[in-house]
Amino acid sequence: MSAAGESVLGSLAGQRKAMSDTRRITVTLPTPLAEAVHTAVESGSYSTTSEVVRDAVALWHEQVAAREVEALRRLWDEGKASGQPRPFSIDTIVARVSDGSKKKSRA
Question: What are the tens digits of pLDDT across the range 86-96?
Fold first, then answer.
């Protein structure tokens, strides 16, 4: 198992600890992926096909979260690069949002 996989599984250990909190699902895979899953089990890298799928889903979940964090970092950097902050009024912001919503509903 990869180091990334171990870190993800370690972070998800609390979620996986209680087996009563699991749900059985059926997954259909293209033949090459199904063969890769079975090869991973046969080689001893994993104990069960379920373990392979859990690891794959955990890695996917970590990648999605990393992309979201990266997007937030980009937005943060764009905001910082946009210039000096100016005073604002929350009432003005709410009014702008409300005006935008009204324009969309008319379209």
Answer: 888 999 889 98
Dihedral sign (CA 83, 84, 90, 91): negative
Query: What is the separation, in whole angstroms, between the first and last Cα of the chain?
Result: 53
CA angle 20, 24, 29 (to 5 degrees): 150
Tell me the per-residue pLDDT of 37-58, one tens digit each, with 9 for 90 and over. 999 999 999 999 999 999 999 9
Q: Which residues contact 52 (CB under 8 A, 6 or more apart)?
A: 37, 40, 41, 46
What is the rounded CA–CA span in Å between residue 75 and residue 31?
40
d(CA 99, CA 80): 26
Dist. CA 59–CA 15, nearest whole Å: 15
Question: What are phi and psi for residue 33, nearest 5 degrees?
Answer: -70, -40
